Amino acid sequence: MTADSGDPPTADASFWDAAADAFDDEPDHGLRDPAVRDAWARRLRRWLPEAPCAVLDLGCGTGSLALLAARDGHRVVAVDRSAPMAARAAAKLAGTGARVLLGDAARPPLAEGAFDVVLVRHVLWALPDPAAALRRWARLLRRGGRLVLVEGRWGESDPVGLATDDLAALTAPLGGRTHIEQLGHDSALWGRPVHDERYVAVVHPSAPAPPRRHTEIVDVHLILRRGDEVLLARRSGTGYADGLLNAPSGHVEDGEDVREAMIREAYEEVGVVIDPAAIRVALVMQHKAPDGAPRTGWFFEARDWRGEPVNREPDKCSGVGWHRLDALPDDMVAYCRAGLDAYRAGDRFVLHWHRPGDSIAHDPEGPGRAVALPHNDHGIPSAEPPSAEPAGDRT
């Protein structure tokens, strides 16, 4: 996301939400002036590979640079943590094949090794830990990839930002080579003469280290049963899947086992106390979001508890309610809906891997992504394997 002189470094999305309406009024933000737009297009062609490649624009703002890259044939993913900014970027990029995601530029919700270029304009200076962000961004690159960092030190009397020496020091631990090109003298880029330091750093990190051992987040999901009904909560204010229903859920914390985590989450989210003896494993699902890393979810069933379920996290949830298990609503998180469908079908182990472009919301007309895995229900295995039908697909 771009920032000009006087914009404070901030991790608060509300600052950028408020700035979205007037953001494109700055010549180098909206690129409405053909001369400014052409100046950025020429520069971008020098910084990006000539052949079409996978470009990730982090802190994309309203998507002006992402649009230039997409028009040159690159496969673009744009990310911004401000919903109003991301909405404007999506509108601007409509019809180009580019995808716009809501997410934190410092911790992008994307798989490592998936991009040829990570493009970031006027973001690094505002991050609380720029060195950590650079390490994460470098891991997003394929072998031979590059970071394109447009930065500066804005203002003359009380400048803010990153000087070139500061940025060179930050990129040095990545190895490889860094080329810095001054931009302040090119008034066509800014729509007016400027007298402060503005530049681009094209960073080619060293070849990545050997792949790290695979790790996954483990989360837990509560199937709270009241006869034929289950309790669902509507997400709100989280920045992910807001407005959609899902079961009370959360991450396993350090030092917890999955049962302890489920009992804790049940009380924290909906105020019910569940005895350890009253909780049953319903199924285990490995899930992957459309643009995220895999995770493993444990779904637990409980039919006995103490306390009336209430919404104890109004900052994350707009309400809770009971829904018939055999007539679940469509406006659910796809991951949770797939788990409840598998639970109804009696499946115990399930894969649910989205593909890029899939919706995180349940789509009754969309492709099935759930695959039930066969499992051994026959006690001690015999010499002859039991007959079994092949794993099946289900939405």
Overview of the molecule:
- With 395 residues, this protein is an alpha/beta fold.
- The chain has two domains: 13-204, 3-Layer(aba) Sandwich (Rossmann fold); 217-394, Nucleoside Triphosphate Pyrophosphohydrolase.
- It is built from ten helices and 18 strands.
- The strands form two sheets. Strands 9, 10, 11, 12, 13, 14, 15, 16, 17 and 18 form a ten-stranded mixed sheet that branches. Strands 1, 2, 3, 4, 5, 6, 7 and 8 form an eight-stranded mixed sheet that branches.
- Strand 1, helix 4 and strand 2 (75-80) form a beta-alpha-beta unit.
- The longest helix has 14 residues, at 34-47.
- The two termini are 36 Å apart.
- Residues 1-11 and 388-395 have low confidence and may be disordered.
Summarize, please.
By secondary structure, the protein is an alpha/beta fold. 24% of the residues lie in helices and 28% in strands.
Largest sheet properties: 10 strands, mixed
Please report the first level of CATH classification, the CATH class of the largest domain. Answer: Alpha Beta
Q: Give the H and E element order.
A: HHHEHEHEEHEEHEHEEEEEHEEEHEEE
Q: How many domains in all?
A: 2
- Secondary-structure content class: alpha/beta
At CATH level 2, the architecture of the largest domain is 3-Layer(aba) Sandwich
> Average pLDDT value?
90
CATH superfamily of the largest domain: Vaccinia Virus protein VP39
Task: Give Rg in angstroms.
Answer: 24 Å
InterPro entries: Methyltransf_11, NUDIX_hydrolase-like_dom_sf, NUDIX_hydrolase_CS, NUDIX_hydrolase_dom, SAM-dependent_MTases_sf
Keywords: Hydrolase, Methyltransferase, S-adenosyl-L-methionine, Transferase
Domain Nudix hydrolase: 213-345
Region (Disordered): 360-395
